[in-house]
Amino acid sequence: MKKQLTIALVAHDNRKADMVEWAVHNADMLSIHKLVCTGTTGSLIRKAFQEKGIEADITCMNSGPLGGDAEIAAMVVRKEVNLAIFLIDDLNAQPHEADIQMLLRQCRVHNVPIACNRYSADLMITSTLWDNEDYVPTEPKYIYFKR
Ligand SMILES: O=C(CO)COP(=O)(O)O
């Protein structure tokens, strides 16, 4: 991929091992992009990359429950994120469910691709559309019905 992207990486505690393994597996690709992460996810990825001598541009926001999802959602609103990978723990409740839903919703509203499992993430990061100058993503057309 030639285009440099800003990629958001977020994982709940029970999915962090998955996220770190995925990030290390895709380190060659990820290291050419800017990574923005919630606090703990980012520090674990940074540590794993350092242990393997992988250099990467990683920005850590606050931890998720302390506003990290909200900060990344704000970046999505400002069109500062090209792609989000969000490994959600769907088997346990989170104290900051409202923030999680906000991040997911803002990605949908602003047409930002968001992968919530590794398979989707693999498909998204290998897409040739990123470098296709002729491809313009179609923005959602919201139609307001008067009731
Ligand atoms: O809670 C999270 C996402 O909702 C993740 O936050 P941390 O990466 O700080 O654990």
TrEMBL record:
<dbReference type="Pfam" id="PF02142">
    <property type="entry name" value="MGS"/>
</dbReference>
<comment type="similarity">
    <text>Belongs to the methylglyoxal synthase family.</text>
</comment>
<dbReference type="GO" id="GO:0005829">
    <property type="term" value="C:cytosol"/>
</dbReference>
<dbReference type="GO" id="GO:0019242">
    <property type="term" value="P:methylglyoxal biosynthetic process"/>
</dbReference>
<comment type="function">
    <text>Catalyzes the formation of methylglyoxal from dihydroxyacetone phosphate.</text>
</comment>
<feature type="binding site">
    <location>
        <position position="12"/>
    </location>
    <ligand>
        <name>substrate</name>
    </ligand>
</feature>
<dbReference type="GO" id="GO:0008929">
    <property type="term" value="F:methylglyoxal synthase activity"/>
</dbReference>
<feature type="binding site">
    <location>
        <begin position="63"/>
        <end position="64"/>
    </location>
    <ligand>
        <name>substrate</name>
    </ligand>
</feature>
<feature type="binding site">
    <location>
        <position position="16"/>
    </location>
    <ligand>
        <name>substrate</name>
    </ligand>
</feature>
<keyword id="KW-0456">Lyase</keyword>
<dbReference type="InterPro" id="IPR004363">
    <property type="entry name" value="Methylgl_synth"/>
</dbReference>
<dbReference type="InterPro" id="IPR036914">
    <property type="entry name" value="MGS-like_dom_sf"/>
</dbReference>
<dbReference type="InterPro" id="IPR011607">
    <property type="entry name" value="MGS-like_dom"/>
</dbReference>
<feature type="binding site">
    <location>
        <begin position="38"/>
        <end position="41"/>
    </location>
    <ligand>
        <name>substrate</name>
    </ligand>
</feature>
<feature type="domain" description="MGS-like">
    <location>
        <begin position="1"/>
        <end position="147"/>
    </location>
</feature>
<protein>
    <recommendedName>
        <fullName>Methylglyoxal synthase</fullName>
        <ecNumber>4.2.3.3</ecNumber>
    </recommendedName>
</protein>
<feature type="binding site">
    <location>
        <position position="96"/>
    </location>
    <ligand>
        <name>substrate</name>
    </ligand>
</feature>
<feature type="active site" description="Proton donor/acceptor">
    <location>
        <position position="69"/>
    </location>
</feature>
